[in-house]
Amino acid sequence: MWKFSLYSKAHSRVSAFSNRLSAFATSGFRRGYHEDVVYGYRVPKKFEYPDYSPEQLKNRQKQAALVCLVEAFRSTGHRATDLDPLKLQKTPTIPELDPARYGLVNSDEQFNLDGILATAPNKASKTATIEQIRQMLVDTYCGHVAFEFEHIPDTAEKRWFADYVELTSKDNGFNANKQRRALELLARSETFDNFMQKKFGQVKRYGLEGAESAIVALDELFSLCSHSGITEAVLGMPHRGRLNILIDLLKYPPRALFHKLHGNAEFPESLPASGDVISHISSSPKLNYGGKDDLNVTMLHNPSHLEAVNPVVSGYGRAKQMYLYDKNTDPSCALGDRLIGIQIHGDAAFTGQGVIMETLGLSNLPHFSLGGTVHIIINNQIGYTTPATNARSTLYTSDVGKLVNAPIIHVNGDYPEEVARAMRIAFGYRKLFRKDVIVDLITFRRWGHNELDEPSFTQPQMYNIIRARKSVPKKYEQKLVEDGVISQADAEQTRASFAKYLEAELAASKDYTPQADHLKGKWSGLVMSTQAVSQLDTGVAKEVLREVGEKSVSVDQAFKVHPRLMKHHIQPRLKHLAEGTSIDWATAESLAFGSLLKEGYNIRLCGQDVGRGTFSQRHAMFVCQETEQVFVPLNNIDSTQGKLEVANSNLSELAVLGFEYGVSIQSPNILPIWEAQFGDFNNTAQVIIDTYISSGEAKWLRQSGLVMLLPHGYDGAGPEHSSSRVERFLQMCNIPMDMSNRSVVQNPNMHVAIPTTPAQIFHLLRRQMKRNYRKPLVVAGPKTLLRLSAAKSALDDMAPGTSFKPVIPDTLSKSCENVKRIIFAAGKHYYDLAVAHGQQPAEVRDRIAIVRVEEICPFPHKEIRDELARFPNAQEYVWCQEETMNAGVFSFVQPRLESIIPTNSRLRYIGRPPLAAPVTGISKVFKAEQAQILSEALSFN
């Protein structure tokens, strides 16, 4: 018998509610599990409330008018609540909440509430008059906390939510000790903001003033987590209130903050870090809230782009759960039992930023679910200078959460105890249903967008009210003093003591020595790279390659594979593996995956339709034609292997790529791969690329081994689906431009490669995990090369002693001494040049060499010098590409190649002229341009 318990024994005030749910359990509802496809997470199944008893159904039928009134309060009561601390919004009259609308008049008649309301004034008989019922409904649904849950399609969830709210409406769970704790947090937060204003008055700190109750909300949530067996919390939040939470809850040393505010770096000077602003710093403390285990809170770094951290939190948490749900742990442990995701948002951003909707869209999907995230909107009722009427088209900023049918709890931030109650309700829902829940914490912003701003320029009435009122901490302090919970002297002592502590920390900041935590825990075996390692022995014994290759297409006889796959995928792969030749792209990729899995690494392959592959080439998963069962063959190599997670994503790029970045920074032992359906799809994930992937290590010392596979190549597919915009990635790379000095050390922030053979992608993928550091890898990958007969490799190319080749030397010229023109090319265009080269007269062919540049960043200057040395009589140097002149890699390679070729030579460009679009969409023009490029590259005047 499974026993439900929302809270620990420390929360005995809701024991009656727990007993009620236990009674439901004996009536037949259970929590069951199904296995996750990969990691063995046990996921709570949907459960059902017991049906109404015949007596309850009869009573509901008899009291149909009363049922309508109760349902009206549950669905629209939130419209009649006191939620605005500033009283700027008038509470409307809601006709649906008038009992007379349903023919119910105020009288002494007793109404039976069994099956209609979860509680009653007279609990023994469950009866009440209409006035008693109305008042109870007003107290429950129209106070300082409001609820939206009737939009949830699942009846069981709605009934649970209504029962929980109604049963706990008169008990906020706060005793004197918790009141004192809340006031202490509020007072310290206000003291910190005042201290910062006094000592660093010209700093934009984005303080919590006006929204101090958010710190009470987090404190309550951390306590609930600790007493419920959760040991890990992953937290993402923007700038507002970040410093307050870091200093007060997350144990960030004030001296470290003050050290940085004096203009110093937050990392040791010996480390190659560019650093970041104070509103992006982070902390990962262990917190003791009295639970069985400490609560490890990981606050992730965030960029200035609003809400971009949200999918990163989800990905980081998903990856972390892989280690929390090891197959040797408690088999009853379910997804979300040990880890929780927490995301804090701004109100204008929650409505306006598409990443919110995209991240919510991942929340209930296989391979992306975190077991429920608690969202807290710090609702200042204004975005920068934009009022709500200009910031959204919805009634509430939280309405976008209805995209995933998340329940929404609105709460007035002037009432810290009600804020804590809202968090308990949110946590209870998340704990049971393992779904996202939203708390809309309605507050205000005492200053402008930052402390240097003048908000009354645009909101004079709002700020007249704000400046005339007491702060939230002062109001709560007054309440507790009047109630006799604390004395005025105690309250003043709390503030004075914390101010004294901050003064001491400020003094200590002068001698503070920064520390770094970037290579600890799972990352302890890695180093900070000082020089790019491009060539590394990543070969694998051929018997191992054959083993994993065969396993990659092995299924049980009872599993019905599509006959075309058997004929065109499985049988050819087995044949070529046996022969050791004609290894195609998909096979080489499987060999890389399988060999890494055998070595104990885990791999996560993610993107739209990646299991099959956009071009129907990969088939990393098979679907039984009779049962539609999904089978991942590479997860059945041996009992000690790592796991391959094939995560077919929804139609999102921004959130999905952010999710995979989160996976990548959680562990160096997971190879996370995101494949765009077409290369240009990365455009809609540019925020993640700019603010995380390309710069995360420089700003925060956080390494990432994320691989981006971006199909690229001009094949008549039109403007969009041709180019991965590789030029943009190269623009973000940080390697030197002048390569004339041979002592120049390249240590790029990310690698960019355009491989042309299956063996090359095999080595690239293995190199990601075999180096003793992690760097992002951008692969401008193939489309037509996936099946091109010329683009095949042998097992010998992947055997021990082999490695990735940044440059593939020319193999077309007969005599190096006769070569007059050297053509540099990259990617699929090489094969077009090679075919056209073979069609030229012998005297022309002998005078031209074609060199493939496979890795663009870091730039392979040594390998190119070595290749040029083979052609002593070369006179012309050409970069030839199919892309337009303002796209592709030409602008990146030009200055670097010109620093290598003879000083009396210049690099000639042959390719399409500059164009606003990546390429023409007119087939005749496209073909003519391509013919002209090949003709010019291979013709002599």
Describe this structure as you would to a colleague:
The protein is of the alpha/beta class. It folds into four domains: 24-167, no CATH class; 176-513, Rossmann fold; 542-712 and 754-798, Rossmann fold; 808-938, Rossmann fold (3-Layer(aba) Sandwich). It is 36% helix and 13% strand. The chain contains 30 helices and 28 strands. The strands form seven sheets. The protein has an eight-stranded mixed beta sheet, with helices on both faces. It has a seven-stranded mixed beta sheet with strand order 18-15-19-20-22-21-26, with helices on both faces. A five-stranded mixed beta sheet has the order 23-25-24-27-28, sandwiched between helices. α6 packs antiparallel against α16 and α21 packs parallel to α22 (686-693). The longest helix has 24 residues, at 176-199. The radius of gyration is 32 Å and the shape is globular. This is Transketolase-like pyrimidine-binding domain-containing protein. InterPro entries: 2oxoglutarate_DH_E1, DH_E1, KGD_C_sf, ODO-1/KGD_C, THDP-binding, Transketolase-like_Pyr-bd. Its cofactor is thiamine diphosphate. Belongs to the alpha-ketoglutarate dehydrogenase family. It holds the Pfam family Transket_pyr.
